[in-house]
Structure formats: structure tokens, C-alpha cells
Specification:
The chain is α+β, with helices and mostly antiparallel strands and 618 residues long. The protein is 73% helix and 11% strand. The protein has a 4-stranded mixed sheet with strand order 1-2-3-4. The chain has a 4-stranded antiparallel sheet with strand order 5-11-7-8, with no helix packed on it.
Length: 618
């Protein structure tokens, strides 16, 4: 038999029918058989059904033709349709009532549970509104009820930040002053070098002009060389060419000295510019380190503020009963505080080390620059002295050459006078006069050159003394600035160490207070859990008192179920055991006998299971 519901004692109403009715197909009639069963005998090829005769005995009847079968089927269909409609309506009404009752019960149970929980919480809190039990209140109690503790902490952080900002501003101003002084010194040196080059160029131009004038005067005094003999021409031209060559050599030497001095001054300017760049880079590095530390400190303060806000949220969540979250948050807060402490100490140690290293490097750089400048100045002085010596030697050589040339010319003129006493007396007198003038002019030129060399040497010495003085002043200023920066950084380090110690102590106090709060919260949560467990047990007990289960020990067509729920409205669900030993949701007739008893009627003697629920209590 297929596992379809079985109708126990169901009769179709008049004109009712069953659509898509499927009959059992059996090769033999069933034995034993109960009344009210319809099947198709596949061997006899007929439809059969069981019924009761006038004596109450079960008999099997056959629907012999299509018309009879149709008539019988229509009757059965009508009866089944009516019964199904009635049962469906009853079931729908019962389901609606059950759902409504369940909703009422659930709402009532929730209201009861909520009221119980609220009462337990109110008793636990001692009448304090939960909204007041936030982290800020707890922290205030832990911190001696100081209502301004946050502002105090923020003020301390602001003070540290202000100190850092002031130090950064001071360092920037000092760096700007140093840069300005170095720039001014560079400009002054470049101006001095430029002035020296201009002076030398003017002196060289004046010398060249004087030589050109002498040559013109000599040529004018000698007259037309074409009237001279070949020997005279060669001697005089050789002398003139020698003078020109000496002048060109002197001009070349002066030009070389000018180029060398200009190159040396340019190198000195380049060295000063490089030192300025290095000092600026070092100052920028120190500024970057201080700025990084300030940023790290601000980030640390932000992290602390965020951690405090997170702790506030965690505590509020803990008040809702999440004890495990409280423990986890306490552990996380302790780890965060330890990590922040370690980070701050590490950052401060790194800053101190960087500042010490920078000060040491700055002092070493200043010493190196001082030594370099001193060496360069000494080299420059040596070069100038050598140049002055070379210039003096050159001037002496020129004087000697001019003297020799004068003697040679006098000899040549004397010879020419002797040879041509009659015709060249006038020429001899003119040449003698020219010789005297040239000697006088060249002596003046030698004197001017010596004066120029002396003035140059004095100017170089004065420039050297001025540069050394300025560099000494700059060295002293840098040394004083390094000392001041070291002192300021030492004070800042001391202040940071004190702030770290204070923050560590405060964090220790906060950690202790949080631990105490966690312990108290855990105790409260444990008490709340115990109360809830008791309430849940009571709810389960009350709920179980509204349910009764029944299982028949033997098969019967009528089962009397005494549930003792003492309710005028009960809901009952029945399942019927079939021949395979399993229980099915057959359609059965149920009678509510009284407030404590119901009866179940079957068309065949079978076992049943039933669940009875008190609808009134629900």
C-alpha cells in the first residue's frame, strides 16, 4: 500500500467528488480487510470495494460495469470531497488558532523574559541608568574623580608639541641666519675677487699703454729707419723687438697670474658654496628628524586618543553582557599601551641618538672646514708671495735688459758718431737725448711696477686677514650655535624622558583601574548569567507544563487520552501506525471529551501517537 494518508471514518457529503482519484491495484483481494476500502483487481479486471452488510459483517463488492462504477465512484467522490472540505476548513481554522496562540505565547514569553532581565539588570546596577556607566565615568573614578583629566592630558601633549614646534622654529631661524652669513661671506669674497681682477686688468692695460707710448716715442726720435745703414737697422730693430718681446712676456705673465688668481678665488668660492650646501643639508636633516619625531609624537597621541575611544566603546559593549569581549579588550589595551610605550621610548632614544650624532658630525664638519679654509688661505698667501717674488725678479730682469740695451745703443751711437761725426752730430745728440728720456721713463715704469707689486701684496695680505677674521667669527658663531642646540636638545630630551615617565605611570594606573573594572564586570556578568540560567529553566518548566505526549501501547479503534491540562481549549496532533510499523499523518476523528480528556477514533484498530498543547495558557 502506498504511503498516502488514510481516511478513518470519513464520509463524503452529497454531490461531493474526489478529483484525480488513484485506486490501489492488487492482483488478489486484501486479507484481512476492513470496510470502506476500494481497489482494482488486476486479474479480474474489475473495481472492488469493501462494505458492511446488514449484519455488520465486512463484504467485498464488485463494480461490474462502467456505469455502475461511475455511479459508485461519483458517490464516493462526493462523500470524500465533502469530508476533505470539512477537514480542510477545520484544519485551517485550527492552524490559524494555533498560530495566533503561538504568537500570543511568544510575545508574552518575550515580554516576561525582557521584564525579568530588566529587573535583574536594575537590581544589579542599583538603580543607576546604564547610560551613565560608560568608560569615561569609570576612568574618572579610577583617576581620583578628576573631571578634567582629558584636558590635563591634552594640555601636556600640547605643551610637548609646542616645545617641539618652538625648537623647530628656532632651528629654522638659526639655519636661515647661518645661510645668510655664509651667503654674505660668499658675495663679499666674490666681490673682492672681481675687484682684484678689475684692478689687475686696469694695471695691465696701463702698462701696455705705457709700453706702446715708449715705442712710439722711440720710433719718433729715431726717425726714418730707411736712411740708416743695414747694420744700424738691424741693431735698432733687434733692440725694439726685444723690448716688444719683453713687454709681451710681461703681459703674458701678468695675464697668467690673473687667470691663476681668478681660478684660485673661484675654487675658494666653490669650496665656500659647497660648505654652505653641506651645512644646509645637515640642518635640513636635523629639521627633518625633528619634524619626523613631532609627526610620530602626534601620531602616537592620535593612537592614544583612538585607543581611549575604542576602550569607551568596548566598555559600553561589555555592559550589554559580553564578558569575553571585556577580557579581550583589556588584553588588547594592555598590549597597545605596552607597544605605545615601547614605540615612544624607541623613538625618543632614536631622536636622542640622531641629535647627538648630528651635533658630533656638525662639530667635525666645522673643524674640517676651518682646517680646509686655513690651508687654502695659506696656499693662497704662498702663491701670492711667490708671484710677488717672480714679479720682482721679472722687473729686475727687465731693468737689466733695458740697461744693457741702453749701453748697447750708446755704444752703437758712439760708433756711429765717430764714423759720421760730421753728418750725424745732430743725430747723435738726438739719440743721446732719447736715451736719457727712455732711461728716465723706464726707471719710472720700473718704479710703478714695484709699487703695483707692493700694493697687490698688501691687498692680498689684507684680504687674507679679513677672510681669516670672518672665518674665525663664523667658526665661533657655528660653535656657539652647536653648543646652544646641544643644550636645547638636552633639555628637550630631559623633558621627553619626564613626559615618558609620567605617561608610563599614568598608563600603569589606568591599566590597574581597567583590570579592576574587568574583574567587577566579569563578576557581574557571572551573576547575570546565573540569573538568566535560572530564568530560562523556569521558562522551560512553564512551557513544558503546557505540553502532553501520548503513545498507545496497543492497537484500538478508539484511544482515550487523559492529558490533565485542565484546559477548555487544547490543540492535538495525531499520527497513526500502519502495517510497516511506521507512523503516518492519517486523517482521524478527534473528540474533546472534557477539560482533561480527548478521544481519537479510527476505522481500523491501530496504534497512535499524540501531542496535546494547552491553547488557553498560550
Amino acid at each position: 500500500m502506498a504511503n498516502f494518508p488514510v481516511f478513518h471514518g470519513i464520509t463524503l457529503a452529497a454531490n461531493a467528488y474526489v478529483e484525480n482519484l488513484n485506486l490501489e491495484i492488487l492482483s488478489t483481494d486484501p486479507t484481512p480487510i476492513a470496510a470502506g476500502r476500494v481497489w482494482f483487481n488486476s486479474v479480474d479486471k474489475v473495481v472492488k470495494y469493501s462494505a458492511l452488510d446488514s449484519t455488520g459483517a465486512v463484504v467485498v463488492k464488485t463494480i461490474s460495469d462502467v456505469a455502475s462504477a461511475n455511479a459508485a465512484l461519483e458517490t464516493v467522490r462526493a462523500s470524500l470531497a465533502a469530508s476533505i472540505a470539512t477537514e480542510t476548513a477545520a484544519r485551517q481554522a485550527g492552524d490559524a488558532a494555533t498560530l495566533a496562540a503561538a504568537g500570543v505565547y511568544t510575545d508574552a514569553a518575550l515580554v516576561t523574559a525582557k521584564a525579568y532581565t530588566d529587573a535583574a539588570k536594575a537590581e544589579l546596577l542599583g538603580g543607576i541608568p546604564p547610560a551613565l556607566l560608560d568608560t569615561i565615568t569609570e576612568l574618572a573614578a579610577a583617576l581620583k574623580n578628576n573631571p578634567d583629566i582629558v584636558n590635563v592630558i591634552e594640555g601636556m601633549v600640547s605643551t610637548v608639541q609646542s616645545n617641539l614646534d618652538a625648537e623647530v622654529t628656532r632651528a629654522k631661524a638659526a639655519e636661515a641666519t647661518n645661510a645668510s652669513a655664509i651667503s654674505a661671506e660668499t658675495t663679499a669674497r666674490q666681490a673682492a675677487v672681481s675687484a682684484e681682477a678689475t684692478t689687475r686688468a686696469a694695471a695691465d692695460s696701463a702698462l701696455d699703454t705705457r709700453v706702446t707710448t715708449v715705442e712710439g716715442q722711440v720710433n719718433g726720435k729715431i726717425g726714418n729707419l730707411s736712411s740708416l745703414t743695414t747694420t744700424d737697422k738691424s741693431t735698432i730693430v733687434a733692440a725694439i723687438n726685444e723690448v716688444k718681446a719683453d713687454g709681451a712676456s710681461n703681459a703674458s705673465a701678468i695675464s697668467s697670474e690673473t687667470s691663476r688668481a681668478t681660478t684660485a678665488e673661484a675654487g675658494l668660492a666653490s669650496d665656500i658654496a659647497a660648505e654652505h650646501t653641506r651645512a644646509a643639508a645637515a640642518e635640513a636633516g636635523l629639521h627633518s628628524d625633528i619634524t619626523s619625531e613631532a609627526t610620530a609624537r602626534a601620531a602616537g597621541d592620535t593612537t592614544n586618543a583612538n585607543a581611549i575611544a575604542a576602550e569607551k566603546t568596548r566598555a559600553q559593549t561589555a555592559e550589554a553582557g559580553l564578558s569575553s569581549d571585556i577580557a579581550a579588550e583589556a588584553t588588547a589595551r594592555a598590549a597597545a599601551v605596552t607597544a605605545e610605550k615601547n614605540r615612544a621610548e624607541s623613538a625618543e632614544a632614536g631622536l636622542h641618538s640622531d641629535i647627538v650624532s648630528e651635533a658630533s658630525a656638525r662639530a667635525a664638519a666645522v673643524t674640517a672646514e676651518t682646517n680646509r679654509a686655513t690651508t687654502a688661505e695659506a696656499g693662497l698667501a704662498s702663491d701670492i708671495a711667490a708671484e710677488a717674488t717672480a714679479r720682482a725678479a721679472g722687473d729686475a730682469t727687465n731693468a737689466s735688459a733695458i740697461s744693457a740695451e741702453t749701453t748697447a745703443r750708446q755704444s752703437a751711437i758712439s760708433a756711429e758718431v765717430t764714423a759720421r761725426q760730421a753728418g750725424d752730430a745732430t743725430n747723435a745728440s738726438a739719440i743721446s737725448a732719447e736715451t736719457t728720456r727712455a732711461q728716465t721713463a723706464e726707471a719710472g715704469l720700473a718704479s710703478d711696477i714695484a709699487s703695483e707689486a707692493s700694493a697687490r701684496a698688501a691687498a692680498v695680505t689684507a684680504e687674507k686677514n679679513r677672510a681669516e677674521g670672518v672665518e674665525a667669527t663664523l667658526t665661533s658663531s657655528i660653535s656657539a650655535e652647536v653648543t646652544r642646540a646641544q643644550n636645547a636638545e638636552g633639555a628637550l630630551s630631559t623633558a621627553i624622558t619626564a613626559e615618558t615617565n609620567r605617561a608610563t605611570a599614568a598608563e600603569g594606573t589606568l591599566t590597574s583601574a581597567i583590570a579592576a573594572e574587568v574583574s567587577a564586570r566579569q563578576a557581574a556578568v557571572t551573576a547575570e548569567a546565573a540569573a538568566r540560567t535560572a530564568a530560562d529553566a523556569a521558562i522551560r518548566s512553564n512551557y513544558n507544563a503546557t505540553i502532553f505526549t501520548f503513545e498507545a501501547q496497543s492497537a484500538a479503534t478508539t484511544h482515550t487520552i487523559v492529558h490533565n491540562l485542565n484546559a477548555s481549549f487544547v490543540e492535538i496532533a495525531v499520527k497513526v501506525q500502519r502495517a510497516d510499523g511506521l507512523y503516518y499523518n492519517d486523517i482521524v476523528s478527534v473528540q474533546e471529551f472534557d477539560a482533561n480528556t480527548v478521544k481519537v477514533y479510527l476505522s481500523t484498530a491501530l496504534k497512535v501517537k499524540a501531542i496535546v498543547r494547552n491553547a488557553v495558557t498560550l
